[in-house]
Amino acid sequence: MATQQRLPPASTTTPTACSGSPDGGTCMGSSYDNGILQLCAELHDNDPASMQTKVVKYLERHTQSECCALWIVSSEDATEVFCQVLGNRVLEEEIRILIPLSCFNTVVTEERSITLDDISENSRTELEQKMDMKIKSLLCVPVINQARSKVVAVACCINKIGAPRFGQADEDVVRHCFRYTVPVLTSVMSLQKERQLKQETQSMLQVAKNLFTHLDDVRILLREIMMEARNLTQAERCSLFLVENDELVAKVFDGHVLDEMGEVRIPITQGIAGHVATTGKILNIKDAYSHPLFYRGVDNSTGFRTRNILCFPIKDRSSECAEGGQPGCPSVLHKDPSQLKDCWCVGDGKRCSERHAVVGIAELCNKVNGLYFTKHDEEVAAVFSIYCGISIVHSLLYKKMKDAQYRSKLANELMMYHMKGTEEDIKPLLSKESVPKPESFHPQMASFTYSPRGIPDEETIRATLSMFYDMGFVYRYRIRHSTLVNFCTLVRRGYRDPPYHNWYHAFSVGHFCFLLYKNLNQLDMLKDIEVFALFVACICHDLDHRGTNNSFQVHSQSVLAALYSSEGSVMERHHFAQAMCILNTEGCNIFENLSTEDYQTVLDLMQDIILATDLAHHLRIIKELKQMAEDGYKVEDPHCHKLLLCLLMTSCDLSDQTKNWQTTKRIAELIYKEFFTQGDLEKAMGMETPEMYDREKACIPELQINFLNHIALPVYQILSKVIPQSGLLVKAVDANKTMWLRLKRESSLRKLSSANSIDFFQIPFRSENGAAEFGKGLSEETEEELAEGEAEPGRGSKAGAVEDISERNNNNNPGRDTTTKSS
Predict the structure, then answer these.
(1) Membrane-crossing residues (predicted)?
(2) What distance in Å separates the CA atoms of residue 141 and residue 181, rounded to the nearest whole number?
(3) What's the whole-model pTM score?
């Protein structure tokens, strides 16, 4: 390095006029003062390049320089300076120089001026190459912002005209110039920075828009991410990796989408990308070849030279750790909890709860208009990665959802195919003449006392068709006969075979709706389409019932609970969904000829009616039902229509309680058989089992009495107030309640240990000689109650109690009442 020649300290006073300068300095006088005032007056625009040009021209004129330049210290990275204006030229691309490795290091760090004699030959050569000119003389002066007491720029005067070197007077000119102009220049540079931030914010919003419009195809989305990443950081190249299991998978390179066979997979612990994936931290490498993780082999084979790299993680900020529920970790490389530090989302010793899951890695190469990627580029990348993470995660979820929909559709098609009846089953039903009148199934088919469980299983579909025709739905809504046959066949096959919630239950519920239509004129209070929706909902209301209740589905975390638990009424929503599947099956849509408005109406009604079968729903609206009964039904009030439909659906659903004692007792046996099976499952799963589902604790008569008192009787009492003709249903339920009371007392007096099991129903309560007795060997107290019952019309009669309650079992059709039609 040449011998350093320090310039004398600059005077703090305004330079005065001189007659000459023996060292080649510039003389200053009144013309200089006028010039600085004129310069300050001209610095009124907000364009940094324009203002720098005016200042540079002023310096060139007053220091008699061939060229001047202003090297501004970067606000993003204080280790570099950049030049936007060189002489009278505004550069298309900024020139950037690292401060520590350049001649500007002394100027910035020591805040003193230097000349050409103070720099090395290498620094001079580098500066000549950067500025593309031969340097004969040089003066570099620090520009200090007094308010912040820091160097904000370096003013360079190059090649003194008429003298071999710059002198002290030249330095004084520069310092005096910036004493007045530096506040304006720094303000304009700050304004430029704010404009840049605003532009970047707008660009980021546009980037988010571009990314979120390509969620349907993850490969196109990755290509968009690469393009936007290059544009935002001005990078020459970009690579993008997705994290899959223990690998980094590259599906796109430089905007080109690779096919499945062209995917590049590397271990997650390998290279720069692997390091970022495992640490979850941005890595900014200023010199790629000096970094130990960089692999030169790719450059050697491709001829591309990698100068610098910015590699940043793309994270899913909503995920949860796979280990112990820690947020932010999709997978762990080492399953041993003691090695949790190797989790993808852990770095610097911080546990998973402080990190987010890494779903991808972006690797940018070679800053185009800079020496390396700056701190600002890191900040831009960090913000950009948030949008990338959201878009990638949602794109992958969208793809999974579509795949699941396709699989569900295929599974549904397969299910519906196997649910369809065979040609032998359907062919006899395809003729309208094959559908008889309801009375042909039993003379009392339209009587409340009749139980349809006596109809053979093979005749239930024909009976359902008969009810559709008899209620006028087929002609009123132009239902094709073949469509109705297909619909009823699929509904029949859509029921599983639990003890109670099977097809026979749905058929009985539908039959009770038929009874309401036939016997209660007040159903005219409803619209025809409401009655139609009610009947269809009745036969569909328990489709695909699994013999377990909503609580079991939720606590066992079943698939159904995952689908519907957020909305409540898990099973009921599933039943409606299954009904929609059947209606959407080709050749099964009995609503196909409805108008658009009626079609939407009937589906909405079906959903509301089926959801009303949830006991929790019924208990929520019971006060409204009682109020409606007290205030009177208002035909013009849509809410009254909705409440009445819910009430009618519940009364249909509980209609087994209105039949004779023999039927009611048989149904109770089926119900508790199903309940106890669920209770056994709950015990096996370690779940808490309610008493009514526990075969070891349940007292069936007491449970039935409570059910009738709190659920069934209030339903039919409310119905009798709204529709007085239905009062006989209250009496029927009350009579069965009386039988349960007597049965409970008899069990207590006889100390029957089987009162809490299914075997309880097999105890004979009839004398060997067939006398009209409640049971064999009845206690005197029970005999007295029977005698009193003959004189109490509201409690049932002795004649009603003497029905044979020992039924023969039918293993093939447990839901069917095996008594003869004449019963």
Answers:
(1) none
(2) 14
(3) 0.58
